[in-house]
Amino acid sequence: MKEIANRIFKNDLPTMAEIEAKYKPRELKEGARVTRFAPSPTGFVHIGSLYAALVNEKFAHNEEDGIFILRIEDTDQAREVEGAADLIAQSLADFDIKVDEGEVSKGNEIGNYGPYRQSDRKEIYQAFIKYLIEEGKAYPCFATKEELDVMREEQQKQSLRPGYYGKWATGRELSKEEMIKNLDEGKPYVIRFKSPGNYDKRIAVKDVIKGVRELPENDLDIVIMKQDKLPTYHFAHVIDDHFMYTTHVIRGDEWFPSVPLHIQLFRAFKWKTPKYAHVSPIQKLEDNKKRKLSKRKDPEANVMYYAEKGYPKIAVIEYLMNLANSNYEDWKKANPSLTYNDFEITMKRLAGSAGALFDFDKLNSISREYVATLSAEEFFDNGLEWAKKYDAELADIMVSNEEYVRAIFGIERGIGERVRKDIVKWEDLRADIEPFLDDKFSIGKNEALELIGLDEETVSKVISDYLASYDKNDDKQEWFGKLRVVAENNGFALKGKDYKKNPDAYKGDISSVAKIFRVLLMGKVETPDLYSVVSVMGEKRVNLRILRLFS
Ligand code: GLU
Questions:
Q1: What is the pLDDT of residues 30-48, one digit of tens each?
Q2: Which residues on neighbouring strands pair with residue 213, listed in sequence order?
Q3: Choice from 40, 232, 266, 273 to test ligand 1 binding pocket (greatest atom count within 8 A of CB)
């Protein structure tokens, strides 16, 4: 088939020997892992992609000398979206996923095994496709779309497996002369791999996550080069992962059925296959049924969603680490001073096709815990950085009332204090600050009384007693001591227990008194530490708020 190969490809292709000489085996320490994230630049970055990238990167970097490659798989140019490749590199950088080789930012490619964009590797693929044709392991196929449609219809009618295989693969039968004639006439063609497989035989496929599974051999003569002369995914995967010396192909579960084909392609060149690990897509529960996170339906499928809502990136990473290995959270609790980079990912623990389930409660709880580890200063700085990008009004409030806002954030966030855990993400800051701001806070009398659950007279009396005994120099203990006196004088139990035992003897307990102030000062029954709220708001504001409705 040399003649055919020479007709299809000009002689200016690099030779296989040249390519092999260029990409010498890596000299890495024993056990070093080479992994890659190989997205197609077709739009926004899916949280499932970020998950796969994270798993690949951590798995490579868990061992010394590990290499993590970013390869842009842009051979399906019809699906390509402009700017998508840059967005991928940017998202990886945003989430601290360290790329050792590939286009780390626009126009900036690093590594000796590139180019790392498949459209720039056209000649490498063609050199090896040419070889397969020469060897009689691939051939040009001139079947038209109409002919293929007829074939599919016929297969359907006969209830047969669809595809170009066995007796259906009529392109195989074409004589050399016919092929040359077609080529001379300029008939469009693709190149197909001549599969040596038998579908009735089974092959054992080893997967790092799934273990050993038996699959039927591949007998499809799949397209390896399209009409636009670019390779298909299958072919590019084999060439690239061979010449980039990938040790572990960790990729989406949808590729698992293609492994027998990929093994055949590796064998056609007498190359060693990498290890495979197929990762389940991220799913969510809807009406008790699992389904894939959908690009269209689920805003949380887009990684931008997390930035917009203000989930700290570390929280998102830790959430994904926990999704990958559910022992992560316990490990982190046991090793609070270590970071997720110190955690060793175990492939076998990854969810296989059973599915990794997306769980907002879990994400929120991880995020809440993470936010609680920030100092008041970090809290302010990170919050402001987010607000500047996503909530300009909030940023403005933070900047023009900096001292006040810092004091608000400092509530229960000081050294040695029990840290409050009411903030999950930066978007929540607005709700946290607003009750403190005079032009954002308002509550009507009826609403207030309803929340407080006491009659107007009692509330007024408590307030006037409180104001009569208030001294701005009181510390927390003194302040609270006075509140207890006010409570007792007004018929409230000091202990919840006493009130519960004898509810008719009291108007409520001390927490009912606190509630009066919580509602009048902040418009809600649950607030941060009341003494801190009172101190941060300052005497004037507190008095204004409590006297406004019940003077
Ligand atoms: N471009 C393929 C995809 O996005 C990559 C699969 C792989 O990692 O090999 O699905």
A1: 999 999 999 999 988 999 9
A2: 205
A3: 40
